[in-house]
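input
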Amino acid sequence: MPAALKKALEKLKPGHSSHGSEDESGVKSPSGVKSPVGVSANGRAQSPAATPRSSGVFAHRPSGEMRRDQIASPTESRSSLDHGSAPRKSMTGVFHRGTQSPNRSGSKDRKHERSGSLGTHSPMRVVKEKLHIGDSSSDEGGPINRDGEPMSRNQLRKHEKHAQQEERHKQNMEKEAEIERRRKEMEEQANAELTPEQKAKYGVVPPNSYAGEWKHQHRANIQDFTVDDVGKEVIFRARIHHLRKMSSKFVFFVFRQQLATIQGVLMEHSDISKYMLYWAEHLEVESVVLVKGILQAPNSKQGEVTGTTIHDVEISVHALHVEAEIADHLPFNVYEAEVTQADVDAEVAQPDHKEGHNRVRIADRTRLNNRIIDLRSTASQGIFRIQSGICNLFRQALDEQGFIEIHTPKLQGGATESGASVFKVEYFSRGAFLAQSPQLAKQMAISADFGKVYEIGPVFRAENSNTYRHLTEYTGLDLEMQIDEHYHEVLRVLDRTFKTIFKGIYERYRPEIEVVKKHFPHEDLVWLDQTPIIPFAEGVRMLNESGWRDDNGNPLDENEDLGTRDEVQLGRVIKEKLGTDYYVLDKFPANARPFYAMQDPNNPELTNSFDIFCRGQEILSGGQRIHDSRLLLDKMAKLKMDPSTMEEYIQGFQWGAPPHGGGGIGLERILMLLLNLGNIRHASMFPRDPKSLPEKPVIKQLRHPDASTMHPPWEGQDRVLANIDLQPIEKLIANYGDATNTSWLEPRTEVWRDQHTGAAVGFVPQDGFAITVGDPLCHESQYLKTMTGYLKYIKKERNLKPLWLLVGAPVEEVLATKFNWRTFSVTGEQRVDPAHNPADKDADIQRKIRHAEKEGVKISDYPIGTPPPPEVKKQVDARVEDWLKGRKGRQVHLTNIHPWQDEEHRQYHIAQTPDGTIAAFVAMAQLSPDHGWQVKYSLDFPNAPSGSIEYIVTHALKQVAAAGAESVTFGGGASSKFTPGHNVKGTRVKVLSRAYHAIATELKLTNKTEFREKLGAVDDPSYICYPPHGLGPMAIKAILNFFEDDDM
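output
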């Protein structure tokens, strides 16, 4: 490996280096090797009639695999291009490497290679040693090719690789068979040996068994268990929070009920059989179980259990039944979600800490995108219990002061406050709006003589604010009341209500608060008995006097509303001067208030309104309302508001309304600030912001409707029983694929298939990793389900570490937000618009094209469905061989050159000189309707007239443009810089950026051709994605081995 690459890898993991030469291997299997069961000679899955869906091993699993590394005999399937070094494509700029994954079985040879010999023994050296290349006897006893000659080095590499693949496949099948055999054996033995009483102690409860005999069994709460209960038999429902097998006779559980966890111990004894333990140790975390057992004192050195909330007792499990199984892969579990940043920092600070071996904090975005799992965590359970407490205390405080709770409609005929922030809806073919607040209805209730009212209900704001403190739908705590003498009567009621809430929360929910503090560290809220009421102008002066300035460096205007930054800074100033987190700003400017705010009698520029603040941010806006109809209409006229949209509201004041005022509290806002959550989305059970409810991808007309994954050919039937094959990969690429997916047709690529939809994911086992390239082949709406099934297969059934390369933004979003993966971009699809080609007006390109035409170069077109005749193919193959001979140096790409692969979706263009010599060749690959076409191969052959390649490429682009294509890609190319995506930040960005720069410089990845630039190529970013701690030096090496190829 070049020195620059070694240094780059060393940067990723201090103290780690990889020495010696780079690994090398081939890309195709040899002749005469039998394909594995379930895979036909050409790599496609056989029909159920020819091959059973499973071979008696894990017949129940819902995933399948299709391998492309076993192919037919070379005498039957290989063209002349497969002799010697495999040809490579030229102008696509996509990456390739063909090394084989190490054998996971632990055989001596592979162990040796994986450990001490990694840097000094390449696969080529192993081949040479095994086949005695260089010895006098090598020509006599070594393998021979189809021409009866000794194999070339490339052919030997392929031979060795295929042997390794066959061995690995055999060992995988043997391992799976052994696991399945063991499971069946245990089931059979259990059925034969156990008594009915023993069998009844474990198992799965049928879903429809909750309408039978009612036994009235007491179900206990874990939280109530104390040391006084030792010896009692208890029954409770809980989730499996964590489990750990200690031995074949001993399993530890942690059971969770909402906020409480308790340790469970399952030991083989008496009626607790070894079969029950074997069954229990294979249960999935987060399963809902019914536990029956005896409470006992912990048998530990500490005298207590430290990893649970219940420390002084544990449960000896005597019966265990699953009431709800986990049917789908979890992106993370609650045990992982409980890891805090403090836990991570503490592990990293340990003197014996090794990089990549600490636990990972699940990113907020990932948690929010898997909200149901996140809501099970103790922090979320605590947050929403406190939220419930706020509502109860709000009701309690106002009920005690004589208020009536009301419920008002959320569909209205006009905007409540500002037309720009209102959601419009269709209401029986006429317009309506979602209520921005219950403001108008509250005032109408006062006009109807209800005196004092309050409401807890939804509020809708169509503000495109993607900040930590805004939601488009939130819960409002609103009140309205008559005023006797002064609008501060309203302020006093609100102040008493807030203090009732604060005091009640800290008294009633202290355990929940302490749980939340572990994840969101903060200090308790501080408030004064006498709440400071500060005039707005005075608050601005306090800010200016502290030295605070606006973004332009100027003092703040006392007649302009404060921004969020200003409010937060004022909170700091008041906390420092007055020692409180809770205060009031009074007398706001009129230009910062809605139309119904009453003007100050002494200064019309001000209003009788106020805001209440907590930790420097507003939690309530309120004040006196205009109750005089003429004054209200005048104000509406000045603001150019149409009174006809609020006739019912205005009529209430025309019929006479008493002086009144009120305020509105954002439930999520006060909860966020009280607990210092940092993001209001944590305070909403299912938060709604401008990015919520994404538009569902349009289902476009497919090129092959019979190969849809939304409506597979066997829809409504059992595919196996109906004897229907999975959709061909070639058709899936034409329906859903991009340029990268065409690499799946390479022999080295294995293809996993979803047995329900036929969706496909291609991967290459490489050095213990599953190098997954490109987006899944399915409709975008199926990405999450497909990727979940694939990752479960890779981890559990193949025991590989997944890496996902060259994916588009939608797949990157799923991996980052649903699986907490880290992402970055160093590549992009280089796309052009063939209908608007800048090259048509480029003088240099046009000069070259005229030169080629003058030399007599003619182009022959072979559209889809009409491939070139055999004699033309043979000529092309010969010219490719000429091209290969002139190729030097290190090659970095994704696929070999197979011009006649998948001819059903190929369009060919061949340029010839007057004497019939082929000068240039272009193969266009048909992709999905969204992605158009790919310039799969564009080859300028030796001694071709100048301008031939420019001529044929621009000609090919015109041909597909004439057929309606809107996009053509040259494939993936390297970017000039490292761009972080999700969950990658801080030092990691710097390290990866430096490593990428070293790699890109060494391999000259960014030498984008001037020709593509003149064609108007634009980079469409694609992403590298990896799980937490998944991109260490060995992963980088695997990626390089996958992509890189050294000429021998």
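quick obs: Residues 153-193 form the longest helix (41 residues).
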